[in-house]
């Protein structure tokens, strides 16, 4: 040990060689995370000291592992039992860039309200938007093409139950278990209001109750609500919640014009919160956590087609339980590219697993294959798509327990398949500060960071009324690309200009759909990538080709440079290119006299967005941006003017323009 001592610091399953210089003597029993010395240590990069010369801990640089913020209180909600905050059980990113979150009530008695809050990431402020009509605890949800949040089902109560034919009436007492609700609720981010079954614009009820359902956005703009429990029951093993009398077997579709349509030809007993994804052929793929998977067609009465069986399959997934048992229960899944799915972690007959599986739905005969193992087994885990196409996995518990002591704090990042790693690869990154287990959530923020919130409030798990934010390694690798003039909406296959001073160093343009997550599954996120060409001072980008690759709705648009550093995300609505705007101008005098007149010019039409740009006699008028009508002054010296307006589409189609010559005649003007 004349010059240096080499040692390894064990982190999970990874060993990092380290070196400390000029160490004259080491204490007999160093810990796995420290080195003690009687005299000062001269430290190489990668070490930090907590007491100079006495304790040295390895710290990997932030551009390799990222960094977690300190935890902060999640909402100012005053809890009835004392204290503040909610458990972030349901968390969403809205088209206004804010995070929307609620907990609901895990109550034995009937509750008909849910505290809900928007959090502004820029200011850190919370605003209350309570739903006073429905307990939307353990509901399903997705963002519809217009950005409104559709919430299906939720929690009625716990008790001895049997569903009444009328889902609004109290059930007849027969059997013990959780009771779902048939409520559908819609939150409009633009007005900050809820539409509920009891509101003035009543949302129609589903045909039957759902507790723990999954919502999925469809390529045609509709939304699927599937599975969930009508009521629970004390029924025999192996899976009490799969009893045919308690599960909602019939999927329902929320139609673009409103109202529900039942898929009576597609009855299937699925697990709670099944992992559902829009497939490349327009059908919906059930990827898990059940071992036997399949495609669901939502046309007509609906129909299923079996696909494949997980490599890690539940031995009892046969007969009555062939579609509801699996080894990835409370694991997570993500479509990391169109048609390509990663399933990670979970548990079942064989206990908590670190196994991952991959399937490519673009294949003529898709089959599951094992992917590389994670460093840690994880149940109640979340997976979040990042701007560079990698997948961040956070939280979870490493054993079939409910205690924070078994929590997995270290996050992991999965890089999708490459030529040298055909099944992708994992790396362990920074450890979060707070255990995030059952009822935790994680969402991608527009600035490229990841919010992780909640955990607990039910199931015997410790409740955490806080959140923390992860800054991935790409935020520590240099300056971020900048971009301006991003259109609020684009159509499928549409080419558009993105002005950026960094055009010469941009290598990728990516899209990540806004998050809507609960119970380890993000029901809304998707990833896509666009082709582009460099132009003077910008890029010409081609939007994703169709709704099967990118279901209509709102996405975060990122530009990435050659080092994988993303720009701040801009929220862009993608939709059908045939949804073109149409606009016409009309004029009317607002006031006039013999020698002057003020003329009002108004724009009206169909599919009109909120981005209005006005010109008068060819000169752009920025002070009129966003206005649906303007005023034009005319006089004897200038009795006419040419007014033009350009308006974006409200649904992703092409913009519209209209031009009109405005004239006023002054026959009685006497300027003497």
TrEMBL record:
Entry keyword Signal: yes
Pfam families in alphabetical order: Glyoxal_oxid_N, GO-like_E_set
UniProt KW keywords: Signal
Gene3D superfamilies attached to this UniProt entry: Galactose oxidase/kelch, beta-propeller, Immunoglobulins
Domain of life: Bacteria
The keyword Signal belongs to this UniProt entry's keyword annotation: yes
TM regions (residue ranges): none
Name recorded for this polypeptide: DUF1929 domain-containing protein
Domain Galactose oxidase-like Early set, first and last residues per copy: 480-574
Residue stretches making up the Glyoxal oxidase N-terminal domain: 358-457
InterPro entries documented for this protein: Gal_Oxase/kelch_b-propeller (IPR011043), Gal_Oxidase_central_sf (IPR037293), Glyoxal_oxidase_N (IPR009880), GO-like_E_set (IPR015202), Ig-like_fold (IPR013783), Ig_E-set (IPR014756)
């Amino acid at each position: 040990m004349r010059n240096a001592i080499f040692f390894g610091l064990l982190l999970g399953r990874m060993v990092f060689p380290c070196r400390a210089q000029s160490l004259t003597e080491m204490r007999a029993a160093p810990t796995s995370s420290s080195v003690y010395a009687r005299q000062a240590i001269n430290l190489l990069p990668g070490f930090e000291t907590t007491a100079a010369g006495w304790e040295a801990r390895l710290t990997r640089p932030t551009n390799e592992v990222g960094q977690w913020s300190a935890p902060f209180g999640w909402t100012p909600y005053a809890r009835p039992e004392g204290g503040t905050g909610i458990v972030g059980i349901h968390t969403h990113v809205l088209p206004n860039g804010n995070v929307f979150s609620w907990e609901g009530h895990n109550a034995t008695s009937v509750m008909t309200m849910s505290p809900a809050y928007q959090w502004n990431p820029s200011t850190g402020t919370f605003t209350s938007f309570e739903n006073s009509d429905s307990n939307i605890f353990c509901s399903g949800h997705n963002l519809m093409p217009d950005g409104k949040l559709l919430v299906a089902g939720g929690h009625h109560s716990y008790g001895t139950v049997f569903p009444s034919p009328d889902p609004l009436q109290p059930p007849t007492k027969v059997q013990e278990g959780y009771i779902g609700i048939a409520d559908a609720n819609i939150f409009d981010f633009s007005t900050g209001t809820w539409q509920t079954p009891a509101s003035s614009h009543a949302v129609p009820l589903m045909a039957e109750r759902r507790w723990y359902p999954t919502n999925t956005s469809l390529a045609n703009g509709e939304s699927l609500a599937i599975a969930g429990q009508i009521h629970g029951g004390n029924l025999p093993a192996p899976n009490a919640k799969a009893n045919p009398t308690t599960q909602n077997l019939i999927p329902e579709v929320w139609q673009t014009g409103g109202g529900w349509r039942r898929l009576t030809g597609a009855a299937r007993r699925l697990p709670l919160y099944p992992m559902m994804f829009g497939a490349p052929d327009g059908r919906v793929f059930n990827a898990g956590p059940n071992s036997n998977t399949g495609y669901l067609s939502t046309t007509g009465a609906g129909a299923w087609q079996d696909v494949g069986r997980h490599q890690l399959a539940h031995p009892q997934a046969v007969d009555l339980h062939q579609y509801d048992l699996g080894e990835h229960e409370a694991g997570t899944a993500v479509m990391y590219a169109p048609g390509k799915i990663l399933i990670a972690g979970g548990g079942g007959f064989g206990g908590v697993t670190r196994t991952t599986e991959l399937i490519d739905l673009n294949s003529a005969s898709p089959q599951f294959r094992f992917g590389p193992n994670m460093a840690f087994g994880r149940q109640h885990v979340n997976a979040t798509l990042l701007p560079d196409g990698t997948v961040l996995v956070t939280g979870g518990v490493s054993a079939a327990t409910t205690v924070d002591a078994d929590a997995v704090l270290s996050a992991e990042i999965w890089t999708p398949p490459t030529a040298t790693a055909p099944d992708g690869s994992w790396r362990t990154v920074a450890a979060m500060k707070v255990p995030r287990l059952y009822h935790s959530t994680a969402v991608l923020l527009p600035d490229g960071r990841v919010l992780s919130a909640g955990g607990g409030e039910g199931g015997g798990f410790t409740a955490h009324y806080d959140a923390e934010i992860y800054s991935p390694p790409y935020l520590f690798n240099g300056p971020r690309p900048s971009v301006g003039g991003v259109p609020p909406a684009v159509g499928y296959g549409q080419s558009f200009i993105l002005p950026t001073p960094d055009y010469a160093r941009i290598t990728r343009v990516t899209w990540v759909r806004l998050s809507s997550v609960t119970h380890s599954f993000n029901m809304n996120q998707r990833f896509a990538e666009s082709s582009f060409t460099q132009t003077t001072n910008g890029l010409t980008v081609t939007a994703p080709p169709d709704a099967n690759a990118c279901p209509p709705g709102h996405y975060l648009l990122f530009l990435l440079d050659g080092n994988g550093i993303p720009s701040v995300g801009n929220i862009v609505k993608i939709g059908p290119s045939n949804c073109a705007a149409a606009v016409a101008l009309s004029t009317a005098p607002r006031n006039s006299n013999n020698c002057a007149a003020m003329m009002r010019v108004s724009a009206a039409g169909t599919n009109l967005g909120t981005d209005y740009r006005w010109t008068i006699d060819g000169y752009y008028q920025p002070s009129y941006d966003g206005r649906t009508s303007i005023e034009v002054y005319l006089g004897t010296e200038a009795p006419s003017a040419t007014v033009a307006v350009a308006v974006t589409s409200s649904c992703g189609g092409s913009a519209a323009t209209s031009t009109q010559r405005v004239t006023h005649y002054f026959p009685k003007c006497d300027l003497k």
